[in-house]
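Record 1 of the preview.
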Amino acid sequence: MILSRRKLLTRGTVLGCSLAASPLITPVSLAAAPWDQRLVVIILRGGMDGLDLLRPYGDPNYAGLRPTLGGGPDGAAQPGLDLDGFFALHPALAPLMPLWRQEELGFVQAVSTPYRDRRSHFDGQDLLEAGTTGLGERHDGWLNRLLQLQSGTAARTAFAIGYGELQLLQGAAPVSDWSPDADLRLSPQAERLAGLLMQEDPLFASALSEALILSRNDAEPEQAAEMEEMEMPAMEMPKPSRGKAHLKLAEFAAEQLRGETRIASFSLNGWDTHSRQSGGLTAALTRLSDCILTLKQGVGAPVWGKTAVVAMTEFGRTVQENGTGGTDHGTGGAMILAGGAIRGGRVMGRWPGLEEAALYNRRDLMPTGDVRAVAGWIMRGLTGTGQSDLEQQVFPGLQMGQDPGFLR
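->
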């Protein structure tokens, strides 16, 4: 039987698995994007508590609303790290304080999407990634719509990284996907057969090599050593940290951003802290801190200097802690900005206050800003996309207002 590359990719029994199912077997071009800056968007799934991330200990109402959760730099079980005399940073983000001092870390407080009142994770995340004013208005994501406005982009310009789908990057513009559990365990004979079939096609050979190397990183040491002895096309790839999936995401993103990729996005779970928040949020923030520092180290100083990292969540949490040491679904929250392109060292946004009359529905932090406007101004500065295109095409119906100067 004559076995073509097409049959190889469509008949999973040939190699013991379906290469076509691998997110790495994708027709990609390495054409550069029309801009040189990098953007990383991290979706924090579950509703991050912005009032614990960024504790407003200078507000006279804060201590009474949060008697056991966190606090300012003095007199708390988990004392925060003073930022500006009003806000204190959660201690789990202490490793990021050098970035704050270097003005490569900033925060935007009291922001949200247009989503209100129903407080469903699914709806909130859909609206966050669609970037629209209401549910069901669009089925593509705002990052993909940004790419649709550009010329010279290709699939490898943007990477959606992780296990689940990212609506954020879904749409008509070509985008590459990668998952750290892309499993391509082949026998030595099957690898040799695949190599022979693809040796005259650089695109497929490169994609196969990339998939094999990623699988080797997760293989047992003896199996990996056996694989390394084979003569297969080579491609430089990062070696993911074993057992820490979030670091694999950040490491892969950094490797791609050092090359032709300009946009990378992935999500982190663990932000739904209904009970025992002090432990759960500490773990989630530690993972986020690890990812940001891994990105910085992985891209290197020259690329980090033109990189903006934006971390956002679908909604905030209630201002008052509940009876189980946690918080429930809320409205206003916070965003985290990092990178050498960020003009950090500041807590941005208009603080609404924590008086009961100032709260949204007398229970949540009142949103005074739109997460889409923050993302819009950052994309405006990084890519040069016009404000009218951002307001009408990328974020339909958004009024971005005046440039708040998020970037250097």
